[in-house]
Amino acid sequence: MNDLIALILGSGTPLVYAAMAGVLAQRAGIWHLGLEGLMIAGACAAVLVTSAAGSLLAGLGVAIAVCVLGSALLWVVIEKLKANPIIAGLGLTGLGLGGTDLAVQAVFDSEATVRSEIGLPRLGAAFGPYAHLSVLVLAMPVVVFALWVLLRRTRFGLQLAACGEHPFAARSVGVSPPRMRLVALLLGGVLCALAGAELALGSLQLFSVGMTAGRGFMAFAAVIFGAGHPVGAAFAALFFSVVEALGIKAQLLLGNALPPDLLLALPYAATVAGVWLSGRLRGGGQSSGAFAELRDY
Amino acid sequence: MSGSLFAVARALAFVLLALVLCGAIFELAGYSSLSMFQNIAEGAFASPEALLNSLGWALPLFVIAAGVVVSFRCGYFNVGAQGQFYIGAIGSAFAVEWLNGAPAFIVIPAAILAGMAAGLLWAAWPGLLRIRSGTDEVITTLMANFIAGLVLIYVTSGPLKDPSGTGQVTASRPIAALYRISDSGGVSPAIIGLVVVSGVLIWVLVNRTAFGVLSSLAGRNPVMVGWQGGRLARLGLAGFLVSGAFAGLAGAIELLGPQGRLVSGFLPAEGFTAILIALVAGLSVTGVAVVSLFFGGLAAASLYLPVIAGLPAAAIDIINAAIALFITARAWPRGLGLRRVRRAP
Amino acid sequence: MQRAEAAEYALECQGVTVSFGAVMALREVSVGFPPGRIHAVVGQNGAGKTTFARVAAGLVRPAAGTLRIAGREVTTGAVNAARGAGVELVHQSFALPPSFTVAEAMEFGSTRHGRAPFTRAGLEARWRGHLDSLGVTARLRERVRDLPVESQQAVEIARALVTDARVLILDEPTAVLAPAGIATLFRRLAGLRASGVTVILILHKIREVLEIADTVTVLRGGRLIEGTVAARDIDAQHLAAAIIGSAPPEAATLSEDDRAALVGAGAGHAAGATIAAPAVLALADVSTRPDPEGPALDNVSLAVRAGEIVGVAGVEGNGQRTLVRACAGLADVQQGTITLAGRAATQAAPLARRAAGLRIIPFERNSEGLSLSSTLWENWAVRPLLLAGRLLALIDPARLRAQCDASLRHWDVRFTTTEQTAGSLSGGNAQKVILAREIDASAKVVIAAQPTRGLDVGATAFVWRALREARGRGCGVLLISSDLDELFDISDRIVVMLSGRIAGEFAPPYSLDAIGRAMTGVAR
């Protein structure tokens, strides 16, 4: 049981961090489909720099810088160039996936996997079966709570929510929605960097091309499932990793009785089910995309 | 008309901007962006063979993109073309497997129809979830892509596994030459015929039927069409199904044509590229025909780069992604930090 | 630097010019508002009143001109500068995030220092006193979207006063209120005036102007016609002339009653001919489930006969939307029957009702009526194409465009080509496109929901004429409006809606008093 929980926490933590970035953007009025790209960029930068410089701090610093820059780019494209957020987000994701692929090939020629000697600090023996988990796992509930306080219990949080829900209301009290969105995206960039660092330096200590495997999109789905609420989104993200962990367990227990590739599809199916359920519970209708303007050349 | 000229100019300008961004990324990664672009151009368009090769890549892309146009015009972000393409190829492969031994004039049409049906079904469930329960179609279709990729791995390593296959990438048994509709180049009269017929059908559907006008209105303003008594669910689902069927058709074409067998993880960027083509073309079917050629060239270059020039194929993914980032932009980058602020004296 | 107390004007603008694209919304407007009074700014729709209010509040940056608040020049186009100087604006369509609680709505726009992070109880404690002092009774935990329209407005005003506002601007605050609500609002504003706040009211009804305002300012076509004239020095007739100016050609058909109704200066009414024609639209004991867009209908019975205009009065949000949606087939009818052109239509699909001759001019021109980013001919062709029924039927766009062209010309729409988008038209022209589509030869019932909202005098006159012509051709017309003057002027009968019920039916001559009481439920 303990190892199952450890498995869930280990795979769920990156998802939660990315989902928190999604929550921030969502409340400011942006459907953030660039999470996947930011996450993998963060993972790649963290591993490459940590192993090259031999310093975890440098790795984390560069990962954060890269993700913040990527978020700023997304903001410019959405707010200044008035691009469609969904497509632009998917573009940023593609840029992250392709860019990390290129970076790995550029640095290590044709290897698809890079290892790092240094990982994130572990919880240590005092935590028993959870000793191998990183400190970011322990920090996760704190971050979720802090975000909840920030979003639901401060004036800043109210103003951010106003930007998403009724931008004109925000403007009429002198709050600039574009500026608030920039803040939300940049903060989200930091969280995505942490998500990537946890994914790559948490338990594995390696980066492989395409290693996020849709986790950023799952984090986005967790935002929808959790109705944009930090705690709800965190539980939704953990739910997805419960399903993933159960799939892995089932595979270990049943051997090849079930096709392993199809068990791997479980978290994706759970994501669909979660988003479907949230649509049912809330009467549906809410969609990330209404995009009449796409054709308005 | 000047409006659409402006639109084309704007699209070109943003593609250029995307290329500049790519150049910067290439330089950062330590590649010469000049030689990168030069090699891409060589791989795509520099010789008659390259051009023919690019056309081979462009044909299935056109079919998928034309289908995507229908769904996007209906107002739905069906980004599941990749999965529908895979499932189409799988459906087609099963049809060939089951009918193996029958004459080609039965097997080939059956395999093509099976591909279309499979793609249609794979688009149907996100479509139904969207119109019945309001489930966000961006997420469901993205997840459907991942699931389809895993189904492809399962099929090529299980039911249709090629026992003689070695190596990491699993693949199905090759299709008998009798049932192929082209060689590995992907250009043959049969494929061109299929693509032209598909293109004409979709053009008529979009530009010359009541569905074309109504779905476009519903895509831009579903509320208004609902007040007029239009059945939005039917229009929207039709969009999903049409785009799924044509993505499935492209899967069948790839299988029976250039690929000749199912390979796990083949053409992983096909669906995304097709969506880009649809967007760059401004959701116009004729536009898609032109833009497909450009992206077909890029796709062709993605094989040329690592083999001939020793450069990473990821460069093409980056170019595509950068174009996606900018292509929906609707404003010129004016006022970037330069906004004049009038202050009181 | 001048001292605030010495300032002659609480708010003053000099040479303010605003243009949106090719449209000049304000042209060199210079006017000053003395402190501690209630000022009315009046004009037709499109005269620039709202733009003026937004310039004063810093939401719109004028192309030229300066703004002085309490004698000090402030940066234009900066909300924080205007708020910092004490100017607050209450919008016509309210601007509070609907999901916020009342307490959150107070907090999010506050600039006062407070403990952050707060608790719910702390937040409520912080704002209870503020609401009490203004006599606002809304509960602090209630969500804005759940408030009735009067409380929502009261909360908006309270929100505007969280900073120590010295100038309060209200944009058309009476448009959403019943007569009794207007009286309460005016009492509240008089109280604010007594405490030294300068109130600027954007209005378009002369009756109300004369009731409350100390001074009157008239805008027409973006120009200043009269600047802060003392209200007692001006009479209704003079004011009406200033507002309308030389009437546009469309207004030439207007009767004296129409003119009075346009500026809210009269209680004109149609001659009350009793009509014995058969009902073309009849609702019998109709109840619906709660509709997502408004309260449920509760035992609504209503008949519209061929050749009459039935007006529906009521404070917005009392089931008018559900009524129209139920008629259109978009609401879930639980009991009762709907009859359309003599045939049962309770369960009929929306499209079948259209086929039976139902035509609707919906509430929201820009979302429910038209697809702004689509071309004119597509917008126009939507019903014929839907009624034809076959999705895969081949169409000839050139023929549709030609038909659309002829129809739009017949309805006097000003357009250049049927390929232009509906969004490129002005509000009045856009409404004419809807009229051209809806009032065709096969129309039997026309439901017009707020058909003149936001239209200038010429376009309003055009819509009235179109509705009267439809009546003349034997259509039954159901007119939903929150403008009582409009209803009094062109309805043959008026029913009043309150909380999803029919709260009364009135025949001419109409009594503002009786109808006003029915709207707030006092009459029952």
Range of helix content of chain A: over 70%
Low-confidence sequence ranges of chain C: 1-5
| Secondary structure tally: strands of chain A | 2
Quickly give the CATH architecture of chain A. Orthogonal Bundle
Question: Can you give the mean pLDDT of chain C?
Answer: 88
Number of domains of chain A: 1
Backbone shape of chain A: globular
Largest beta-sheet details of chain A = 2 strands, antiparallel
Largest interface: A-B, 63 and 69 residues
Computed structural class of chain A: mainly alpha
What is the percentage of strand-forming residues of chain C?
15-25%
CATH third-level topology of chain A: ABC transporter involved in vitamin B12 uptake, BtuC
How many domain modules of chain C? 3
Low-confidence stretches of chain A: 284-297
Identify the strand order in the major beta sheet of chain C.
Answer: 6-7-8-3-9-10
What assembly state would you assign to the polypeptide chains in this entry? Answer: heterotrimer
N/C terminus separation of chain C:
59 Å
The appropriate CATH architecture of the largest domain in chain C is: 3-Layer(aba) Sandwich
Reading side by side through the largest sheet of chain A, how are the strands ordered? Answer: 1-2
Report the strand count of chain C: 20
Number of helices of chain A: 12
Verbal overview:
The complex is a heterotrimer of chains A (297), B (345) and C (524). Chain A is an all-alpha fold. Chain A has one domain (2-286): ABC transporter involved in vitamin B12 uptake, BtuC, CATH 1.10.3470. In chain A, 71% of the residues lie in helices and 2% in strands. Chain A has helices spanning 2-28, 35-53, 56-80, 85-108, 135-152, 155-165, 167-172, 177-201, 215-225, 230-254, 260-264, 266-281; strands at residues 113-115, 206-208. In chain A, helix 1 (2-28) packs parallel to helix 5, helix 2 (35-53) runs antiparallel to helix 3 (56-80) and helix 10 packs antiparallel against helix 12 (266-281). The radius of gyration of chain A is 19 Å and the shape is globular. Chain A starts with a helix and ends in a 16-residue tail after the last helix. Chain B is an all-alpha fold and 345 residues long. Chain B has a domain at 62-296. Chain B has helices at residues 2-28, 33-45, 48-73, 81-98, 104-133, 137-157, 189-207, 210-220, 222-227, 232-259, 270-280, 285-309, 314-327. Chain B is 72% helix and 0% strand. Chain B is globular and about 60 Å long. In chain C, helix 9 (256-263) runs antiparallel to helix 17 and helix 13 runs parallel beside helix 15. Chain C is globular, with a radius of gyration of 24 Å. Chain C folds into 3 domains: 4-248, Rossmann fold; 266-357 and 443-524, Rossmann fold, CATH 3.40.50.300; 368-441, no CATH class. Chain C has a 6-stranded mixed β-sheet, sandwiched between helices. In chain C, strands 16-17-18-13-19-20 form a 6-stranded mixed β-sheet, with helices on both faces. A 4-stranded antiparallel β-sheet of chain C has the order 2-1-4-5, covered by helices on one side. Helices cover 34% and strands 23% of the residues of chain C. Chain C contains 18 helices and 20 strands.
